[in-house]
Q: What sequence folds into this?
């Protein structure tokens, strides 16, 4: 895979409460990991993972979709936050041979090899589509088998990228937040995932804070990983334990901690506000 350019929305930097997060991401990428960082200009919110096209192949092949999530459009005060995907992509040499033609959300897309993990919230977002037709459309557009997880309805977004993440060796990381609080839901997740992957359950070996789910919402880049943190000085027990664990899970990678509480309070973290761009050669800008 080529080294991607990492994008964030300019709104992440121009919004006062998240300005320091944008600056920390920029510094970590440019100065510490030597990875290019740019900003998206035509956006209406900073959760760019959700509305940008999803990468189908690591050569810069993407698939487009209609971004119109119910958790935004059903509330009049939030409708203005919907970002037009075509506007956000202007000026990029994006190779998008497929368009799902359905309502989709990039936060509900976790790719591991030839499989894509998403929650079954995809069905409630597209109620007019027969289930078998919707699944076939997803398989065709994403060139992947679809692994469906149950939607934890305490998460209004219904995103899979807060539940699982791929490891570099093909295994899957599973968040630990249901293990004690919802054991039956946790068992369901294990049963589904074990049929497809070897699983590593996150275990920090300490008393975890309520928001310790956030660590799974990291940004992985070549030779490095940006890890969201709960304490400004990265000194709470969970932050310390998380860094130690991720250093073991991603040996040889530079783990950079970033204080992300303003995002975490809104239900997201670093993966949610970043997007990887690989320019496919010989593709004209729209």
A:
């Amino acid at each position: 895979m080529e080294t991607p350019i990492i994008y964030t929305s300019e709104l992440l930097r121009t919004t006062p409460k998240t300005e320091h997060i944008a600056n920390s991401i920029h510094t970590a990428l440019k100065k510490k990991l030597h990875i290019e960082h740019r900003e998206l200009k035509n956006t209406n919110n900073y959760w760019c993972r959700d509305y940008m096209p999803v990468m189908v192949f690591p050569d810069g092949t993407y698939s487009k979709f209609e971004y119109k999530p119910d958790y935004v459009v059903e509330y009049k005060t939030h409708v203005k936050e919907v970002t037009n995907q075509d506007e956000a992509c202007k000026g990029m040499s994006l190779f998008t041979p497929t368009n799902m033609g359905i309502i989709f959300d990039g936060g509900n897309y976790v790719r591991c090899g030839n499989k894509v993990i998403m929650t079954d919230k995809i069905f409630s977002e597209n109620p007019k589509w027969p289930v078998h037709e919707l699944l076939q459309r997803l398989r065709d557009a994403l060139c992947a088998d679809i692994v469906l997880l149950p939607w934890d309805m305490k998460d209004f977004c219904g995103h899979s990228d807060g539940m699982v993440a791929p490891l570099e060796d093909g295994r899957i990381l599973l968040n630990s937040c249901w293990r004690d609080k919802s054991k039956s839901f946790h068992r369901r997740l294990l049963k589904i995932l074990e049929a497809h992957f070897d699983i590593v359950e996150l275990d920090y070996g300490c008393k975890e804070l309520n928001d310790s789910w956030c660590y799974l919402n990291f940004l992985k880049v070549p030779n490095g990983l940006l890890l969201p943190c709960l304490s400004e000085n990265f000194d709470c027990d969970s932050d310390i334990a998380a860094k130690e664990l991720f250093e073991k899970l991603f040996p040889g990678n530079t783990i950079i901690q970033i204080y992300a509480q303003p995002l975490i309070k809104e239900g997201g973290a670093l993966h949610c506000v970043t997007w990887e761009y690989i320019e496919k050669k010989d593709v004209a800008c729209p």
Q: What stands out?
A: The mean pLDDT is 92. The first strand starts at residue 5 and ends at 9. The CA atoms of residues 168 and 250 lie 8 Å apart. Residues 5-277 form a domain with the L-arginine/glycine Amidinotransferase; Chain A fold (CATH 3.75.10.10).
